Amino acid sequence: MKKALFVLLAVSFLCVFSATTLYAVEKGGAFNWIAPYGSSVSSLDPNASDDEQNELVCINIHRGLYKWDASQNAPKLEIAESVSSSADGLIYTYKLKNNVKFHNGRQLTADDVIYTYNRIMNPENAFGASGLLKVIKGADDVFNGKADTIAGLRKIDDLTLEITMERSVDPAYALFQVNTAIVPREAVEDTTTPFGSNPVGCGPFKFVKWVKGSEIVLEKFDEFYEAGKPYLDTLVYKIMGDSAARDIAFRAKELDANILYSSQYAAYSVDPELSKRLIEVAEMYTRMIAFNRDYTLADGRKPFEDKRVRQAFNHAIDSDLIIKKFQKNKAYPASSFLAPTTPGFDPDLKGYEYNPTLAKKLMEEAGYADGFPLEIVGTESDSYGTGAVEVIIPFLKKIGIMVKPVTLEGAAKYERQKNGNFQAIIGSLPSGPDPIQQLWRFHSSTDRASRNTPAFNNQQFDQYLEAAAAERTDMDKRLDYVKKANALFMEEAPLWFFNYNKAIIAYHPWVHGIQKVGPEMMFQDFTEVWVESSSPRAK
Amino acid sequence: MFAYTVRRLLQFIPTIVAITLIIFLLLNVLPGNAALMAGGKNRLPDDVMEKLKERWGLNKPIHVRYLLYMKDLAQGDLGTSFFAREKVSQMLASRLWPTLKLACTALLIACLLGIPLGFYSALRQGTWVDTVTMVGAVSGVSMPQFWLGLLLMFLFSVQFKLLPTFGYGEGAAVNLILPSLTLGVGYMALLARTTRAAVVEILTQDYVRTARAKGLTKIWVNRKHVFRNTLVLLLTSAGLQFGSLIGETVVVETLFSWPGIGSLLVNSIFYRDTPVTQGCILVIIIGFLVINLVVDLLYGVIDPRIKYQ
After folding, report:
1. CB–CB contact A214 B168 (8 Å)
2. B248: which DSSP letter?
3. Per the CB < 8 Å rule, is A413 touching B32?
4. Would you say domain A282-501 falls under CATH 2.40.30.10?
5. What is the pTM of this model?
6. ipTM here
7. Which of A125, A413, A502, B156 could bridge A408 with an S-S bond, Cβ 3.0-4.6 Å?
8. Chain A residues with CB inside 8 Å of B34's CB?
9. Cβ separation of B254 and A241 shorter than 8 Å?
10. What fold is seen in the domain A1-41+203-256+508-539?
11. Domain A62-202 belongs in CATH node 3.90.76.10
12. Which domains can be identified in chain B, with CATH numbers?
């Protein structure tokens, strides 16, 4: 017995020891990362940043009240140590951490939060982030010029802030976005250096240098509030819009990690070495085709008013085959609107199976046995544009829908999407992280111009969503309503549910800490990323 | 010559006005606008978009916008970037030198290799040297820069580990090699073909025959009579190509993460950041006009028979 116990202890010790050895964090070194969405970064002012390319850099310079916790797949408190809410869910009181400093050395206080939020809502600035803060009472008044400051913000003391909400809503989903990160007034108002080019934040890395169009260099902020972090000394963003060039740079070990596109994924996933270090996640975006119910044929009929036609469209296309052959497995088939990483996703929901016989039968029952012509508008993307439309043409031809792809540039396409000037339109819609917010775009109170692209209108769906939003205490019940709304939406088929993007990061053997970030894989927080001494850029 | 230069400089003004009008119209009559592109994948709410359009002056009629743009331009103000919220002139200033450096190096490579190759090929007309050189030149002209760049990257960075794959590297010469080679190879091939054609033609001229008949050495004839007479043609070709090179840096800069005007232009077109697009195109056009003027002035220096009235 004693012997067995000894062996057990020895094995446990060895396991713990080897695990410790294997995962002992090594500090220092530089990490060459990428900004892959285009050939420029436009601004590092988090509040003014308007797209993912800027935000993926800002995430490591700036911090807000919340941040995305990739390990929990949910927002978590960041510069605040605690939060309490009133019984009616309208008032949130935040206790800020007392060791949060800006990169200029000054401590962050409640005044900075108030200044930043008022800055975001200032109509003169017209910041995109203003849409996020409208959940705060009085924020809209500032945006519309009716007030100078947000009524719902109150400083209790230097480290305590009270936020009153416009309605009962968890602010975490709005305030984890880096666009709402807190900025120091003195740096913003310093006219000698534009804040967007010389940002001062309170995040793990401070800004050092920006060679416009080439690279951005950040270095470890020694007074970061998480003791001992970040582990890296330097973080370099290489601005590389070309995926083939990134691939070569990664293989030449000039990049420590890289995001992969379809053609690269196909090559990497069969490579015995490279395939060992791929991290994949279903991003919270749903690729789809939205049907316009107002689309009228020459004989006056409106095919997409009939649910059976919409369902036939979904049954007619073999999405799995397209994903496998055309998109090289770089996507997950969509079973409904909400993505697998979004809370409320129902794994039991199977979506529309490929069944051309059933699709044909549904078309016949709906009175469209001879089919109809259809223009599908999109950008030139192969993933969610007319490249993908060309692949579905033969499938739809079998049920009589004669598709003509119409390729437009991004802004022109979006204008037609807003105006309802389309018969069907292909694209990628955000489907997380807040399931209620994302499904609300299809609530009957949301019009097409405000993002309800298929102009979906269903009372039962509205009721489920409203019940989910009203449920504040029982999270299971809340998610249950979300699942019901999502299932009903899928059954009504106002969209062709195509796929969820599979975002893939490839990394070298010396890299540790890359995470699956559902809202956008490129939003990697480098606080806990570290490199082994075998890295070419190790200390 | 001074009067001629001033006259040519004054001619720039109507040219620039006409071009700005065309660019402005093309960029502004397209459906959609920059506010629709703001927000990335998560589009902005309508009221925010309206505020942005107001801020950017996109709600004003197009002729009013053009007049305002021309008024600012006359004062040297190229406007403010919609997204970077910085002065376009400042953005261009930081990117002009890398683009010039890249284009000049590419042209240098093209001239240093292309002209001797073309010259030698013409002198060895019909031999295997000529054939190989011209096959190489045709291949060089036909090769897409994008593909050539990737090939060079793979060869010199991944296989031989000699050169950095991409980046500006604080302006180090080693970072300039691959982008300038990529940009220059096509022009080198074009110059080689132009040189060969010019030399072949000049070799049949009477004054070359006379020079040879006088008993001058082959080297002397080629240097004094053949090469000097090809220079005017080469200068025209190289000058025009340099203007095109600045425009064609777009592909190479994007591929190599080179911080020049080309990569800025690509991004601004994608995001409909019209002030930046207009600024980039204007700089490229002015560059083209200036180079043409310089070439015209150099004609007189190279060939004393050319006189400007």
Report:
1. yes
2. H
3. yes
4. no
5. 0.91
6. 0.87
7. A413
8. 411
9. yes
10. D-Maltodextrin-Binding Protein; domain 2 (3.40.190)
11. yes
12. 2-74 (no CATH), 92-302 (1.10.3720.10)
